């Protein structure tokens, strides 16, 4: 009886060790083979910020009774661009005003509207700059009425 009990104990321990080893190998293989977490590219990562200031303008709604007021901070992908952006301030402000004036109240409402507006402003600003320095558009104040 002791022989059967000892043999059974060895089999159980060996099975547990085998499963533990297989689990460890599987963990190491999947961890090594798993894709790295999504990280921003250099162009999308903000390394500096530039205050573009406050904007207040009418929206494109019929009657012109609605307006938008935003304060914009730009995330830059190149810290050296910070010194150069002052020279482009007038065309950048004009581009932002053009985007804001073209929107209706319905287009800028909610989180989706705000995100779409930020993406369009980013695209428009990068088109007036010699290099695509703008990686993010931050609204530090956002009022639509």
List the helices and strands and how they pair.
Layout: H1 2-33, E1 48-58, E2 67-76, H2 81-84, H3 89-101, H4 105-108, H5 110-128, E3 134-144
Antiparallel strand pairs: 1-2, 2-3
Which value, in Å, is the CA radius of gyration?
Answer: 28 Å
Into which percentage range does the β-strand content fall? Answer: 15-25%
The CATH class of the largest domain is: Alpha Beta
- Secondary structure class reads alpha+beta
CATH architecture of the largest domain: 2-Layer Sandwich
By DSSP, the count of extended strands is: 3
Give the end-to-end Cα distance, rounded to a whole number of Å. Answer: 87 Å
What are the secondary-structure elements, in order, as H or E? HEEHHHHE
3D structure, described in words:
There is one protein chain. The protein has 145 residues and is of the alpha+beta class. The chain folds into 2 domains: 34 residues; 97 residues, Band 7 domain (Tetrahydropterin Synthase, Chain A). It is built from 5 helices and 3 strands, in the order αββααααβ. A 3-stranded antiparallel beta sheet has the order 1-2-3, with helices on one face. A hairpin with an 8-residue loop joins strand 1 and strand 2. Helix 3 runs antiparallel to helix 5. The N and C termini lie far apart (87 Å).
